[in-house]
Each structure stands twice: as structure tokens, then as C-alpha cells.
Amino acid sequence: MIIRPSWLHFRESSRVWIEDRLRLKPLIDLLAKKLVPRHKYSFWYLFGGLALFFFIVQIVTGILLLLYYSPTPNTANESVRVIVNQVSFGWLVRSLHSWSANLMIATVILHLFSTYFMKAYRKPRELMWVSGVFLLFLVLGFGFTGYLLPWDTTAYFATQIGTEIPRSIPVLGEFIVRLLRGGEFIDEESLKRLFALHVVILPLITLAVVLFHLILNQVHGTSIPIGIRSLREPIPFFPNYLFRDAIAWIAALILLFGLCLIFPVQIGPKADPFASAPVGIKPEWYFLTLYQTLRIVPAAILGVNSETIVNVCVGIAGAFLLMTPMIDRKARMEQYSSGFTWIGVVAIFYVIIAISLAYLT
Ligand code: HEM
After folding, report:
1. For residue 1, is pLDDT > 80?
2. DSSP 182
3. Comparing 62-71, 190-199, 227-236, 350-359, which segment has the lowest mean pLDDT?
4. How many CB atoms lie within 10 A of CB 85?
5. pLDDT (tens digit, 9 = 90+) per residue, 79-132?
6. Residues framing ligand 1 (Cβ under 6 A)
7. Torsions phi, psi of 150, nearest 5?
8. Tell me, what's the pLDDT at 37?
9. What sign for the dihedral angle of Cα 331, 335, 341, 343?
10. CATH number, residue 59
């Protein structure tokens, strides 16, 4: 007779107890059925999972911040000071929220470029790509709407400038500015609106789109880049690949805590709407490409002002991004589309040069 150690017996009976109640087996079988290909670019598959990780950190830390944050011009800045100086670990939660936001946006951009270069948008994953582009807009929306919430001088004037940019969009510009601000200037109404967008509207929409994105990923499995020959045995998503994801998440957590401990996020003086805007005010790094483009385009070309031109160009770039799977005919036929690869390379160079110039000049 085999005598089993008591802890093994306990583990088995707990497993049966949980299985009897939650009936997880079909879900686990489904996850195990999905195979993840292994080749020289498989490292890049980790970035989707990392974006998901940072999004979860945002939700958890955001809920904790909500316990103390107060969204009115009189109380917002003070409530953030209370979080940082008086609430236990408040400074850490705030730094985690802010650093994780930056890392989430960086990860989403890396994930976008990696899926772009691997042509993972080709049939049947077109809607994964389209939902991904919406996720990019949504995470940038989080960055934009969250910026004003501490109601400090930089946040106030940067949002005043940022919400002015859409004004020159043909037909819709005026409407968008008033919609964002809730009036002509940044004031109490604007703070209420951006707060509602940041903590309710954007999270609900993002959750739904992330779910759609992940379900499609499960349905179609992971793509193999065109022309990859040296394939090793694929591995099941559950538990093998999930284990790799978990290692990446732990590394991300260590990086996140390291950044918070070395560079805790600061808060500036309470905004004074009647003061003049500080000189040399710049947006967050993820809006610097747009900022620098607005700086280098001449004030008017053929009588059309620079902001209108830049807004139209951004619209065209956004539409190109959304439509990539439909317009890349070669990838649709499983042929390598080097033209699209070059467009991606030029885009990366442009972004790097624009951000560097914005920082240096
Ligand atoms: C909050 C933002 C996002 C989250 C949480 C997310 C999550 C994920 C996850 C977990 C995967 C599976 C693992 C992988 O292949 O990387 C995936 C795959 C994919 N994602 Fe995203 N993603 C996001 C944004 C984006 C963006 C911005 C794009 C592109 C515009 C995109 C396009 C894709 C595509 C095409 C795949 C399929 C990759 C393949 O099968 O090879 N995603 N995403």
C-alpha cells in the first residue's frame, strides 16, 4: 500500500473542492489547447502580457488613490499632498500609479511595433489589430485625462495648451475643445469631466476592448511571422507559456518598485489660473512627437495654419494605422511586405528624433 504524505492529500482534496465548485477544467483545457510558437522573435510575444500587467496595476493603484483623492480645484492638490505625506504608503501607491502609466504606454507602443513588424495583423487577426489601435488611443487618453488631476501649475497650464490643439480640426475642432473643457477655459467643470473620463468612462471602455482583444487572441492563437522557418516545438499556453509571462511580470514589478523608490513622483504647487504660464512647459514624453511636430511646421503653409495641417496629418496617420491590415495587400497574400516594414522603420526614427529634439531644444 502507498502511503501519501498528508500535504499531498490536502492539496488533492483542495483541488477537488475548488473544481467541484468552480468547474474550471473546460477553461484550463481551452488555455492548454492554445499553442505558442517558438522562433527567434518569440521574445516579442511577452509585450502584450506586460501591457496587461501594467493595466491591472493601474486599476488596483487607481482604486486605492480614489479613497483619498478629491476632484475640485480647491481640494485636488491638497488631497494629493495628504496621500503623499499622511496616508501610509500613499507616496508609494501614487508613484506606482504614475510610473506604471508610463511603462504601460511604453509597453503598448513596443507591442504595437512588434506586432506591426511581425505582420501579426494579417488574416484572420485584423480585428485584433483594430482593437489594439483603439487600445493605444485609450491608453493615451488615460495619460491625457490623468495629467490635470493633481491640479498643480504644470498640469494646469499643460492641459490648457493640450486642450487647445484640437481647436483647429476642421468642422469638429470647436466642439471637441468645449467638450473636453466643459467651457471656454480649464476650470472646475474641466476637472470634473477629465476626472469622470479618467476613472469611469475610459476604464469601462478599455476593459471591454481588452476583453475583446484577449478573446480573439485565444480564438486565433498566436501568429507566426511570414518567412520564419526554424520553428521549434510550440509550447502550450497553460501552464508553460504562462510561466514565462509570470517571470516577465515579476521582472516588470521589480523595475516598477525600483523606479518608485529611486524616483518617487513629486507634486508641484497648487495651480493659480490667474498666474502666467511657466516658460518652457512641455507635455509628457508620449505627446512630445506631436509637440515637436507643431514646433517645426511653419506657422502657415499656403494660407492654412500649422495646427490645422498637423491635425489633418495626425488624422491621416491614425487612419493609416487603423486600416493597415486592409491596405497591406502583400501580407494578406502571406507575402513579406517590405514597403510596410520601411514605413514602420521611418516612423520609429521620426518618433525618436522628435522626442530627442523636444528634450534638447
Ligand atoms: C492595453 C493595451 C493592450 C493589451 C493589454 C494587449 C494584450 C495583448 C495580449 C496579452 C496578446 C497576446 C500575447 C502577444 O502576442 O503579445 C496580444 C496580442 C496581439 N495584440 Fe495586443 N494588447 C494591447 C494593445 C495592442 C495594440 C496597441 C496593438 C496594435 C495596434 C495590438 C495588437 C495585437 C495583435 C495583432 C496581437 C496578435 C499577436 C500574434 O498573434 O502574433 N495590441 N495583445
Report:
1. no
2. S
3. 227-236
4. 10
5. 999 999 999 999 999 999 999 999 999 999 999 999 999 999 999 999 999 999
6. 45, 47-49, 51-52, 55, 108, 111-112, 115, 118, 120-121, 125, 128-129, 132-133, 135-136, 139, 210, 213-214, 217, 222-223
7. -70, -10
8. 93
9. negative
10. 1.20.810.10
Mean pLDDT of 214-238: 91
16 assigned to some structural domain: no
Kindly report the protein residue whose alpha carbon is nearest to atom 12 of ligand 1. Answer: 48
In a domain, 48, yes or no: yes
- The rounded distance, in Å, linking the Cα atoms of 311 and 162 is 13
Measured in Å, residue 26 CA sits from the centre of ligand 1 at 24
Give dist(CA 199, CA 277) in Å, integer. Answer: 27
Q: Is residue 69 part of a domain?
A: yes
Residue to mutate, 128, 212, 224, ligand 1, most ligand atoms under 8 Å from C-beta: 128
Instruction: Give the three-state DSSP class for 183.
Output: coil
Contacting residues for 85 by C-beta, under 8 A, at least 6 apart: 91
d(CA 52, CA 219): 18
Hunting for cell 476642421 — which residue is that?
170
Query: Would 308 be classed as within a structural domain?
Result: no
Looking at the structure of the chain, the number of domains it has is 1
pLDDT at 86: 98
Q: How far is the CA of 243 from the centre of ligand 1 (A)?
A: 18
- Do residues 260 and 95 touch, judged by C-beta distance below 8 A? yes
Cell numbers for 156: 494646469
324 SS3 class = helix
Residue 304, beta-bridge partner list: 301
Q: Is 238 exposed, middle or buried (0-12, 13-18, 19+ CB in 10 A)?
A: middle
Q: Which range marks the domain in which residue 189 is found? A: 39-281
**Residue 299 buriedness (CB in 10 A; 0-12 / 13-18 / 19+):** exposed
CA-112 nearest atom, ligand 1: 29
Neighbours of 171 (CB within 10 A): 6
Name the residue at shortest CA distance from atom 21 of ligand 1: 48
User: Smallest Cα–Cα separation from 83: which of 136, 145, 17, 150?
Assistant: 150
